[in-house]
Amino acid sequence: MGPFKLILLAVFLFISVVSKANTIEIRPFVKGSFAELKQEYSNQPFVLIFWSESCSYCMKELAMFAKLQGKYPDVPLVVVATDPFLDESEVKGMLERTGLSLQKTWVFAEQFPERIYADVHKRWRGELPVTHFFDQDNREVRHLGIVKQKALENWLAAQQQLINP
Amino acid sequence: MRKIIVAVTFLLTMSFSVTTLAEQPGHKPVKSVHKTSGGKPHKKMKRPQIEGVFSLDMVVNKGRIHLLAGRQKADKKSLWYRYSDDGGASWSVDSQVLKKDSLPVRATRGNDAQIVAQGEIVVVTWTKFDPKTRFNSGPMLAARSVDGGQSWLPASAPPDWNGGSHGFIDMAVDDKFVHAVWLDSRKAEGFKKQQGVRYSRSSDGGLSWDKNLTLDGHSCSCCWNKVVTDGSSAYVLYRDKNPSDLSIGVVNEQQQWQYLNHVGSFNWMFDGCPHIGGGLDFQTVLGVKRLHATVGTAHPKHLGVHYLYSNDSGKSWSDIKTLGDESAIHSDIAAHEDGRVIAVWDMMGEVGLGNFYAESKDGGEHWSVAKLLSTKGARASHPRIVKTKNGFFAAWTESDGLNQRLMTKGL
Fold first, then answer.
1. How far A34 CA sits from the closest chain B CA (Å)?
2. Ranges B299-303, B326-330, B351-355, B360-364: which has the least confidence
3. For A99, which of A66, A149, B50, B317 could close a Cys bridge (C-beta 3.0–4.6 Å)?
4. What CATH number is associated with residue A99?
5. Enclosing domain of residue A104
6. Which A residues, 77 through 136, put their C-beta within 8 Å of a C-beta on chain B?
């Protein structure tokens, strides 16, 4: 291979990897998405986290998840912004502030968020943060308010242990 | 030459390796693509351009209803004032605050720009939109009119601390003072630097403001406050922490703060953002003063909006009377000297939130069934109500998803 071809190849590889690394999928979360996600992640543990750009407690909780993310990589985090049509810049801002690493995330794509609240839980009126824990038997535990780190770590460790005994 | 090429290739390859780490936990992706829930690529998710009324507040002073609406057209936001001397049957010509088509306003329903009036003096306040700050929330801004809202000038805002944003403002007047409450995150004595309830008053119609008081150094960070006056003291309803129930206290004429009680002792322990406040109004019937309140809570056993009254200016409260169903959220209340009390609130209807009201003709002892206030089939939220000379006047917003309209009704 000639020298210039070698350089071109290296540059191409560099650009393609940078491009891939800087990508996050933003998916619309609408009425019905909750059921779809439960189906998509059925029979595996996962955590569904709802947040808002105006919720300081949410940022604290997401930062806590970020710290534990590397330790429990087999438990997917499904992170959903409840601000209708939240700008990408706000999503990126959240990722930067919290240190969370996501391949994909969701944003409410319904002008009237209460319709989604009711679809997710009939008694939810928009209080945040709210976190849903699903185990591999699809059992759901819903927690309103910021999650206690110890309880969170215990739950994640238990799920990780079941996946990789 | 070959050595240079090899070196460049090596450096680029190293960059490749380092960049790959960006996919690992703790590193930040920065570019987005969009897919549907099912994974099929689709067009970039686009926020609909909402136009119309994004902010609403009103007060009554000397029989005149003063109404402030925030309006958005394309990307431009502006504030508009109007008044009515006949209970909302007819209105003055709209006056644009500061005559600006584009004001930096950070407001939404539940965190609205505020208005207060003392005769011909009208004061409006709002949180500045500042894209450089977290939540885009900047300091409080103010404008003032001394000719009944015909012309406006920028005015000094109540806060004497500008180290962060101010939000969830409310104001009230009596014959002597203009009272203002809001939330900000200054460090107060005995508290960490965190969101708390601050107060200031003006004795010159909003021209200047007194040294700020911290009423509670740790409060809900995202719930609206309510201040009313009985003619000499300012009563402040706000969402407390530990528990996250609404609390009330009073600032007397000597500017001394006294915490009074919870309004609805639900013992709701919640480390989060409820985004719910309440309503408060005084009523004097046959010389007996009664304070009426609506409070919202998401306590699992008390979910919804509740009514309570106090016969000792907030020190103790009646049992709760639940208004609406569990989905009720945002509420307000007004109490007339003729004994009538009307509470308004929003709760889930056919197409999302709708507005409802209930009336008591005996000072809050007995209540009518809930009646629909907003247009049937319309999505409506955040109703407000004030008492007028001869009755009540309610205002709210209705939205079709693209346009949000101001709606009103005399009751």
1. 10
2. B351-355
3. A66
4. 3.40.30.10
5. 28-163
6. 84-85, 87-88, 91-92, 95-96, 99, 101-104, 106-107, 109, 111-112, 114-115, 118, 123, 125-130
